[in-house]
Amino acid sequence: MYREVLVYTSTGDTARRMSEYAAAFASTLKARLTGIVVDVDFVDYSTIESAITESQKASAVEILLKQRSQSHEAALRAGSLFEEKARQRGVLCDMHYKTCVSGEIPDVVTEMARLYDCALVPSVEEVGGFKVPIIEEVLFGSGRPLIVLPTDHDVACSLGYVVVAWDGSRPATRAIHDALPIMREATAVDILTITEEKPLDRLPSGHDLVHHLKAHDISATYDEVQFSGKPVGEQIMREALHRGAGLLVMGAYGHSRVRQIVFGGATRTILKGPHLPVLLSY
To answer: Which residues pair with 6 in a beta bridge?
Structure first.
């Protein structure tokens, strides 16, 4: 059972999408919701250099103060929107405002996520034109499952039909057990295995997994789909979309060594542009 859920809202239109989904998600699972928004304290060196060259140092300070004010206002709007969406769903919520430079955002979210049952994050986060690796850091560093949401289109929170990508591996097993509270709420759960993509003979079968889930009061079905030759992550996502799933559950493949984070092929493909929410565990 998920008791407490964390959501990194980001700002702008992403904040609306994140807040709407998070409020509906917490309402469905009867969980308390905590939001975190970062008031980014950044310096745009390119605008400073331009200002110094073209005018004077005073104008550079003015630019920085304006950027700082815009960031602060965006954070306040995101926080207010989050609380509004939670109230509309009758969800108990807390809002945390953090101030840091953009490079510290992943660490801030990771540290908070360790104390929650699940964390919701956007698939893409950019600050000042640079991509911030929130997914990678939180997934490898928090020890908690993530639900990654698309940021380029609205997604309704629909937990009635869940598709699980299963290959019998440790990450897939972890993801399934992390997703048990969600699957108990679903009316349909499909276990999906892509065959002939890699050896699976010595791994637990999907039929065994269906039997195991039944012990948790989850009724699931198992299906095998032959490898199409395209990237397996792309095939998994396409299958989940074709079946009308509201959530894809899968293990994340990768490693973290001395801050170098590398995702495996299927995970990397999924995260390039998820078309529906994806629960990831590592």
So the answer is: 34, 119
Q: What share of the chain is helix, strand, coil (3-state, %, to 5)?
A: 45, 25, 30
Q: Is 203 helix (H, G, I), strand (E, B) or coil?
A: coil
Among the residues of 149-264, which ranges form H helices?
170-178, 180-185, 206-214, 232-242
Do residues 161 and 188 touch, judged by C-beta distance below 8 A? Answer: yes
- For the four alpha carbons of 61, 109, 86 and 249, in that order, the dihedral sign comes to positive
- Among left, alpha and beta (phi > 0; psi -120 to 50; other), residue 254 is left
Enter the tokens of residue 28: 């469905």
Q: pLDDT (tens digit, 9 = 90+) per residue, 216-226?
A: 999 999 999 99
Residue 174 corresponds to which amino acid? R
pLDDT class of 259 with cuts at 50, 70, 90: very low
Q: How many CB atoms lie within 10 A of CB 199?
A: 8
DSSP state letter for 219: -
- Helix residue spans in 151-280 (DSSP H): 170-178, 180-185, 206-214, 232-242, 265-272
> Can you name the residues that pair with 120 across neighbouring β-strands?
7, 147
Question: pLDDT (tens digit, 9 = 90+) per residue, 152-198?
Answer: 899 999 999 999 999 888 999 999 999 999 999 999 999 999 987 66
Taking phi first (over 0 means left), then psi (-120 to 50 degrees means alpha), and beta for anything else, what does residue 196 get?
left
Phi, psi values for residue 14, rounded to 5°: -60, -35
Residue with tokens 């809002």: 95
Q: Which of 240, 36, 8, 275 is nearest to 152 (CA)?
A: 275
pTM of the model: 0.88
